[in-house]
Amino acid sequence: MTRTRLTAEERHEQLVAAAVTAFSHGGYAGTTTDQVARLAGVSQPYVIRIFRTKQELFIAAVNHASGRIEQTFRQAAEREASLTSLGHAYDELLAERELITLLLHGFTASAEEAIGEPVRACFGRIYQTVGELTGASAEELRDFFAVGMLLTCLGAMRVIGPDPVPPTPWIQSMLSAFEKH
Q: Is residue 97 part of a domain?
């Protein structure tokens, strides 16, 4: 059996994908570079050689998630540059539970300044992108992101998205409010 040798860029992408998976399950504090290495099928020293620290690896994973959101919003805006169009595009991203869960871990790890600054920068880029693409006012952007954050939390809790938990009365009440809009 012959193994295909990956380019440096492909290996980097492989490590970031493994990091998204690992950090989405264990968070920043609960995940080791060894876990990421095992998921990627490489050695832990190789991960450190590429990213130097767990912190840099985590930030790369958060940047990847943020980039996916920006890319999705830009593609949606090509069809229709409205908050509604971008909102529907985000609904599709909610199916990528690891991606949204990683974002939540990024927000909570932001208390550590070395992580907080790049995570805030990612969020800021998404905010600016939505504003530029749609021309929405500050109030409209606030409401768009407030609903998006709520949906992110609901998706991470498996209230919405693939394989949702059975709906309880509070879930049914909340989801019916979304259906009215």
A: yes
In a domain, 101, yes or no: yes
Q: Domain for residue 3, yes or no?
A: no
d(CA 48, CA 93): 30
Mean pLDDT by 10 residues, the chain (181 residues): 72 94 96 96 94 96 96 97 96 92 95 94 97 98 96 92 91 84 55
Number of domains in the chain: 1
Please list, residue by residue across 49-77, b when 16 or more beta carbons sit within 10 angstroms of its beta carbon and e when fewer do. ebbeebeebbbbbbbbbbeebbebbeebb
* Tokens 């958060």 found at: 62
Neighbour-count burial of 1, counting CB atoms closer than 10 A to its CB (0-12 exposed, 13-18 middle, 19+ buried): exposed
Task: List the CATH number of the domain containing 127.
Answer: 1.10.357.10
E strand spans, the chain: none
Please choose, from the candidates 17, 41, 129, the residue with its C-alpha nearest in 3D space to the C-alpha of residue 83. Answer: 129
Which pLDDT score is estimated for 4?
A: 66
Does residue 1 lie in a domain region?
A: no
Q: How much is the pLDDT for 52? A: 94
Range of the domain at 36: 8-179
- At 5 the pLDDT is 75
pLDDT of residue 180: 63
